[in-house]
Amino acid sequence: MIALYDRTANALNTSADTILPTLARFVFAATLLFYFWNSGLTKFDLNPFSPGLNGYAQIFPKAMEAVGYDASQLSMFHWAVVVAGTFAEFILPLLIVIGLFTRFAAFGMIGFVVVQSLTDLYGHGGIDQPTTLGAWFDGLPTGTILDQRAFWMVVLVTLVLKGAGPLSVDRLLINRR
């Protein structure tokens, strides 16, 4: 029985470098790709270098409130962050899905999700909303920040540690070197 278990475990370990990153990229594409792209689309009107009111309000809610929702009163820093964040919502998920610079893109998405979560908690008041914040080990997997985003992180950390897997542009580039 132990020998069978060992053979099975060894076979699974051998296939993990193929299955895990490919599965992580598939799950990301199936669950988060369009979430981030749709979010990015709400941040500008027609010109991606000209963020709309919604882009500023989503990323800098307290600053927008302080200036009476007049984005023209915000600084060049605010503009640069909104534009960079919007481009990140399109480019980083695309890189993950096609498997190009996957580790870099997944690491960037981890940073993006951390900033997004802090903005949701402190900028939009989610810290005061138990259903938004959630709580680990409470038996309810529905909290947006602690519960759901923990799963996002597992997918992204898998990609940082394992890379894109065999069905990726990264692998094609590695094989060409």
TrEMBL record:
Q: What is this protein called?
A: DoxX-like protein
Q: Which UniProt keywords are given for this protein, alphabetically ordered?
A: Membrane, Transmembrane, Transmembrane helix
- Organism of this sequence: Octadecabacter arcticus 238
Membrane topology per the record?
A: Multi-pass membrane protein
**Subcellular location per the Swiss-Prot or TrEMBL entry:** Membrane
Q: Where primarily located?
A: membrane
Matches recorded under Pfam families: DoxX
Tell me if Transmembrane helix is a UniProt keyword of this record: yes
Q: Which residues cross the membrane?
A: 20-37, 76-97, 104-123, 150-169
Instruction: Give the UniProt entry's GO cellular component terms.
Output: membrane
